[in-house]
């Protein structure tokens, strides 16, 4: 794909030792390597690689993409590395180590436009569950030698560390939306990505509403569209993998979930999945958790009071 030798160190921005030559040619495509083509880099942090795979899954469009942009750094697709700066960086994954913090700043410095892709990069991913846990305890239970690990107490989105030009949601991202982002970048315009809820897509498809028809929970009313209401189209409730939509009324949904018979712990769990760290879902789950904690405290206080009364009276 590129004209450079493969001397770059994966994950190290700017580590490549050779440069694209303006008059060089693509070896496999036989087409000129147009130095005018914007350079695209795809970076990975804490993630499962699924969002990068969405790019590789754009089978019908991949050749056109490769003609429009110079894929300069994309370890999942090619070992070849072309030195930055890069006109467009796609970043997958969340920040979970001190090294990640250093690396994302280097990547930002080398990137013209930086787009984060997927729930990990935009909300901290499923690994953001550690934000409610004791990381030291996890470390000591999982690893034989936790002293060799350097990790952060939290998993945070890329935007918590550097400026991000656009965030594309989903776990994984939708490939049509990914192509729209690339097309918008090439056209110098804003991506046309909806910010309304999955319910809108669901109604447009004429689906029967899952909670209304079956009583099963669905996060569609508070989740951003983009998947084409995939789960409700198969009779299953949405579990929020595209994260909160721009005006998510989680208070109303929480009330409805409880009315449908969901236990508080389960309500907390439905908000704490792939987008647990997204502010709207985090706040909704915290609200329920605080209510549960207040109820347990009140019950413990009542039990202590009753115990005190019994002791005061003495055995009957
Ligand atoms: S957002 Fe989902 S699919 Fe994408 S990298 Fe994270 S876990 Fe994988
Ligand atoms: S099934 Fe879910 S997404 Fe579809 S309309 Fe009902 S609540 Fe909304
Ligand atoms: S319906 Fe919800 S859970 Fe299913 S793919 Fe769409 S956003 Fe994700």
Automatic annotation (TrEMBL):
<dbReference type="GO" id="GO:0051536">
    <property type="term" value="F:iron-sulfur cluster binding"/>
</dbReference>
<dbReference type="InterPro" id="IPR037024">
    <property type="entry name" value="NiFe_Hase_small_N_sf"/>
</dbReference>
<dbReference type="InterPro" id="IPR006137">
    <property type="entry name" value="NADH_UbQ_OxRdtase-like_20kDa"/>
</dbReference>
<feature type="region of interest" description="Disordered">
    <location>
        <begin position="1"/>
        <end position="32"/>
    </location>
</feature>
<feature type="domain" description="NADH:ubiquinone oxidoreductase-like 20kDa subunit">
    <location>
        <begin position="48"/>
        <end position="184"/>
    </location>
</feature>
<dbReference type="GO" id="GO:0016491">
    <property type="term" value="F:oxidoreductase activity"/>
</dbReference>
<protein>
    <recommendedName>
        <fullName>NADH:ubiquinone oxidoreductase-like 20kDa subunit domain-containing protein</fullName>
    </recommendedName>
</protein>
<keyword id="KW-0560">Oxidoreductase</keyword>
<dbReference type="InterPro" id="IPR051349">
    <property type="entry name" value="Hydrogenase_assoc-protein"/>
</dbReference>
<dbReference type="Pfam" id="PF01058">
    <property type="entry name" value="Oxidored_q6"/>
</dbReference>
<feature type="compositionally biased region" description="Basic and acidic residues">
    <location>
        <begin position="18"/>
        <end position="29"/>
    </location>
</feature>
């Amino acid at each position: 794909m590129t004209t450079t030798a493969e001397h770059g160190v994966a994950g190290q921005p700017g580590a490549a030792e050779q440069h694209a030559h303006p008059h060089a040619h693509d070896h496999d495509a036989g087409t000129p390597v147009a130095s005018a083509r914007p350079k695209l880099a795809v970076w990975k942090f804490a993630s499962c690689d699924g969002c990068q795979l969405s790019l590789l899954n754009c089978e019908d469009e991949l050749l056109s993409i490769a003609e429009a942009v110079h894929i300069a750094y994309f370890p999942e697709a090619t070992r070849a590395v072309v030195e930055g700066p890069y006109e467009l960086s796609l970043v997958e994954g969340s920040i979970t180590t001190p090294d990640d913090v250093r690396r994302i700043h280097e990547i930002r410095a080398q990137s013209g436009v930086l787009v984060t892709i997927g729930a990990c990069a935009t909300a901290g991913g499923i690994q953001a569950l550690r934000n409610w846990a004791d990381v030291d305890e996890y470390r000591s239970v999982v690893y034989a030698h936790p002293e060799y690990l350097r990790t952060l107490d939290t998993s945070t989105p890329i935007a918590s560390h550097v400026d991000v030009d656009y965030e594309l949601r989903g776990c994984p991202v939708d490939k049509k939306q990914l192509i729209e982002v690339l097309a918008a970048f090439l056209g110098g315009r804003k991506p046309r990505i909806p910010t309304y809820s999955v319910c809108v897509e669901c109604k447009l498809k004429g689906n029967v509403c899952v909670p209304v028809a079956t009583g099963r929970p669905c996060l569609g009313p508070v989740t951003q569209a983009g998947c084409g209401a995939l789960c409700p189209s198969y009779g299953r409730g949405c579990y929020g993998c595209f994260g909160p939509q721009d005006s998510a009324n989680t208070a109303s949904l929480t009330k409805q979930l409880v009315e449908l018979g969901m236990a508080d712990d389960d309500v907390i769990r439905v908000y704490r999945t792939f987008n647990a760290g997204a502010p709207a879902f985090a706040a909704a789950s915290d609200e329920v958790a605080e209510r549960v904690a207040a109820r347990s405290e009140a019950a413990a206080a009542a039990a202590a009071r009753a115990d005190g009364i019994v002791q005061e009276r003495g055995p009957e």
